[in-house]
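#struct-pred

JT: dropping the chains for the assembly here, can someone run the whole complex?
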Amino acid sequence: MGVKERRARQKKFLRQEILDAASELFVRDGYENVSMRRIADKIEYSPTTIYIYFKDKAELLEQVCKETFGRLVQRLSKIMEQPGDSVERLKRGLIAYIEFGLENPHQYRATFMMPIPEDFDPQKFYEKDSPGMQAFSFLVRGVTECAQAGKIQTVNVELASQVLWAGVHGITSLLITDPTFPWVGRDKVIHSTVDTLVAGLGG
Amino acid sequence: MGVKERRARQKKFLRQEILDAASELFVRDGYENVSMRRIADKIEYSPTTIYIYFKDKAELLEQVCKETFGRLVQRLSKIMEQPGDSVERLKRGLIAYIEFGLENPHQYRATFMMPIPEDFDPQKFYEKDSPGMQAFSFLVRGVTECAQAGKIQTVNVELASQVLWAGVHGITSLLITDPTFPWVGRDKVIHSTVDTLVAGLGG
DNA sequence: AGAGCATAGTTAACAGTGTTAAGTAAGTGA
DNA sequence: TCACTTACTTAACACTGTTAACTATGCTCT
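RK: done, full complex below.
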């Protein structure tokens, strides 16, 4: 009865191959400039084969993004377990988030800047163990640590976290869509944004 | 020789009719869910007629956005000419920006959250009198006034303005794409973001 | 008034899109 | 050996933005 398992393994392999091909094309050319036919060409299968493994193009993108944000979670977890000043650690985490977004603009755009699909299920997406939520809970943890150390004066940790998220998302998404804007220096704006936000929170 | 002018007037009229139809459809269904054929149906002309008045679908969207952001400029100018505390005025302007974005999510998304087109010309778009730049210069003016009144300690007005813009854009765009996220109260996050940013700047 | 021409708008088509229904060929289990 | 499942393909549908070629109207000039 090892046959079923071998088949399942093969199936998973092709699934991953599709995912990798889609990822590479999405990253290079952007979601809407990649057709199912082009992905199929790349892996040398017919376009319809993809539909055996993925519901539609949107799900394909969703899975690519999930993989990518898994890497963000790894990065954030490394930063958060480092010792030292809690405020500095929080700031490093925020900077890492921004840099991650700028390194993966297409996945970042797909996750946080594109209209949520019709069939979007919040209950499913906002589970605690989805990469997005894991990343956010690192932020909450960082803020909590700062508050406990008395470095931040906030009555509402959740609110403070959402404000920080909004702030870092702002500069990230703006730099992604408008790189031609006459910015007063990329790094300058990034660091200034993080410093201003944390300072504004009373840290 | 009044004939040419009458023709020009008629041409302008149809142009505006196309713009209005496109605007209504874009706002209701979103840019990518509206086809040129649907716009044409609405005004009861053939699809190709639109191409006599606009280069392509992107230019149509661009013009719709320009109209919309013109209204933002009007609103901001009203706020900025009001007397009173400079910090309060700045905050009111920032709140107005956010509310405007939430009231016009499709145009906001098109302007600040969608990939800039291939043929995008920064020189042309970032002219001083484009609605986007006008809006931004209101922000610079607001920050300058605060700095002059000693309410904000900043060596670089341009940098401070960009940080503020990033911040308000962050909460605006996040609320547009993720309204289902478990926000700690919409107004709460908005006001908290503005307060945090301005406080962080030393106001 | 009549010939020529510019303009506004049309029809038909191209090349592409995501997606699905129907069909095929190979391999498994009885 | 026969039936059945599985993996995959072909062909097609209903769209999309956009363009080339055409028509019909009405103005200009002789």
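JT: nice. The first helix of chain A runs from residue 2 to 29. Chain A has a mean pLDDT of 93.
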